[in-house]
Amino acid sequence: MKIFSAAQIREADAFTIAHEPISSAQLMERAAGKCATWLEEHYAPHYPVYIFCGKGNNGGDGLVMARLLLDHGYKVSTGILQYGAQASADHQLKLEALQQQYPASLYAIGDVSDIPTLPPDAIIIDAIFGTGMSRPIEGWLAGVVHHINGQRGKHTIVAIDMPSGLRADESSVQQTVIQAHHTLSFECYKLAFLLPENAAYTGEVHILPIGLHPDYITHTPTRYLLADPGIIQTIYQPRNPFAHKGTYGHALLIAGSYGKMGAAVLSARACLRAGVGLLTCYVPQCGYNIMQLSEPCAMCVTDEDPHYSLHFHRSINPATYKAIGIGPGLDTQPGTAKALEHLLDSYQQPMVIDADALNLLSVYPYLLYKIPAGSILTPHPKEFERLFGATPNEVARLELLSQQAIKLQVYILLKGRYSAIACPDGAVYFNNTGNPGMATGGSGDVLTGILTGLLAQDYSPKAAAILGAWLHGFAGDLAAAHLSQEAMTAADIIQWLGKAFLEGI
Predict the structure, then answer these.
(1) By the 8 A CB rule, do 216 and 15 touch?
(2) Taking the CB of residue 333, how many other CB atoms lie within 10 A of it?
(3) Residue 228, annotated ligand binder?
(4) Where do the annotations place K(+) binding (predicted)?
(5) How many CB atoms neighbour CB 110 within 10 A?
(6) Tens digits of residue pLDDT in 108-155
(7) Are 133 and 105 in contact (CB under 8 A)?
(8) 374 annotated ligand binder
């Protein structure tokens, strides 16, 4: 699914109006109708509805919702905010229609004191400002937003298209923004919905299709995309019935250290469950028995050191392996950094770099420029900050993420609720599978194993990153559905990986 900017969404509306053809007022009816239907499906008519409308087309959506809900027996009060801007033509048209049918439902809001006291079970609809908002909410309008937010603990707040004050493509940090429980938006995700800093504003996002013209959606390029099931199905490679273990590659995992062998075991198991043909694990001597007993399907090579992996540059022939993953539980010994540098100098194929290997890169940043092109880096936000520096907000961080992927010609998978995969060509894919139950030790080690396994099977680095993140999250969703988010562990993600292949692709 493409993620369009606010400007592109306006272009899509205009294209649809011109080519369907349909009038802008009719398109407004269609969008508001979808919102009204959603509300009817979730809240019975005994819930009183209070709609707050601005003077633009977002307010027009609210006016249409009011009329449709009143038609269906809901008790609706609609407040029109009386700020200086002239109402849009479609807003005025919908206001006149509501005045003709239900004049008693309307009232004017010129100050916070004009807002009535709401009954305990009221639903608040925010239709004040949409994607056209170009400046911060200030003055008495900010007071209205603060008043609505003050009702959040007692009432359900539903935002139409965007929570008022939230910028679609820019940071809204330190801005006055509606804090919605639900956001009903149209046709596709907006960038703002995918950034953690906006979670308190958007609540649960619901994307409602309104029939924007498919030609615009198909032919308009966009930098940001959501890895939906359609994309995943085009990436997935079904197995060849005449395949053998050599068909699916020999992977090497360099992982584990004294006290951190669990990370190596989790990564190895995930790599095998992801379908790799052969797996060799390189571990310190203290990890030999642990690995052999915990994962007998993997081969094991040990370092000369009892506690750390310090000599893998001397002990292995990198060319033997189709893919290499390095980092889980590795530790950050100086000797390990030296061995990593030798590996980066000698291995020319894409590899997966995670955890302590990333921490070593942040300590020795010149190593970043030795990483093979097409490699996959998987930092969490703090690791990313140590590697590339802090940013004032998450929009800036996303831009830095993309810049570094282009500069280094690598794929950077920034882990989070909507993990962002920045590509060397400038594209950024967001992953929407996964849940808070995956915020547990070892979850990242599992992802490293999955990515390494896919890379060994001849998936391109881009395909491995997108598919791997999606499978990792979907397996986590399946585990949480059966075990609860609270009770699941990283090992449960591996256990449900097979089901993720069966049900998700």
Answers:
(1) yes
(2) 17
(3) no
(4) 58, 126, 164
(5) 11
(6) 999 999 999 999 899 999 999 998 777 899 999 999 999 999 999 999
(7) no
(8) no
* Rounded CA separation 247/458 (Å): 9
3-state SS assignment for residue 376: strand
Q: Which amino acid is at 259?
A: G
Annotated binding-site residue? 30: no
Q: Is 248 annotated as a binding residue?
A: no
Q: Which residue has the tokens 């910028």?
A: 167
Give residue for tokens 């995309």.
Answer: 225
Cα–Cα distance for residue pair 223/399, rounded to 1 Å? 11
Which residue blocks in 102-243 are alpha helix, DSSP H? 139-150, 199-202, 214-219, 229-235
What's the confidence (pLDDT) of residue 480? 98
Q: Is 133 annotated as a binding residue?
A: yes
126 marked among binding-site residues: yes
Q: Is residue 60 situated within a structural domain? A: yes
Based on the fold, state whether residues 373 and 404 are members of the same structural domain: yes
Select from 429, 448, 431 the least CA-distant residue to 490. 448
Question: For the chain, how many structural domains are there in total?
Answer: 2
Task: Give the DSSP per-residue string, 94-106.
Answer: HHHHHHHH-GGGE
Bridge partner list, 244: none
Residue 131 marked ligand-binding = yes
> Does the annotation list 418 as a binding residue?
yes
Tokens (6 digits) for 389: 């520096």
Does the annotation flag 135 for ligand binding? yes
**Is 60 known as a binding-site position?**
yes
pLDDT band at residue 478 under the 50/70/90 scheme: very high
Give the per-residue pLDDT at 423.
Answer: 98
Calculated CA dihedral for residues 132, 218, 467, 193, nearest 10 degrees: 10
Check the annotation: does 416 bind a ligand.
yes
Is 164 annotated as belonging to a binding site? yes
444 is an annotated ligand-binding site residue: yes
Specify the 3-state DSSP secondary structure of 386: helix
Contact 145, 114 (CB under 8 A): no
Q: Is 263 part of any known ligand binding site?
A: yes
pTM for this predicted structure: 0.95
329 is in an annotated binding site: yes
- Residue 468 sits at the vertex; the CA angle it makes with 465 and 469, to the nearest 5 degrees, is 85
Same domain, 375 and 500: yes
Question: Do residues 245 and 165 both lie within one domain?
Answer: no
DSSP structure class, residue 266: H
Q: Is 419 annotated as a binding residue?
A: yes
* C-alpha to C-alpha distance for 428 and 397, rounded to whole angstroms: 13
For residue 471, give its domain range: 229-251+271-278+317-504
The mean predicted confidence, pLDDT, of the chain is 96
Residue owning tokens 């308190």:
200
Q: Which pLDDT belongs to residue 85?
A: 72
**Is residue 256 a part of any domain in this protein?**
no
For residues 382 and 388, give the distance between their C-alpha atoms in angstroms, rounded to a whole number: 10
Buried (b) or exposed (e) across 354-392, using 16+ Cβ within 10 A? Answer: bbbbbbbbbebeebbeebbebbbbbbbeebbebbbeebe
Q: Does residue 292 belong to any structural domain of this protein?
A: no
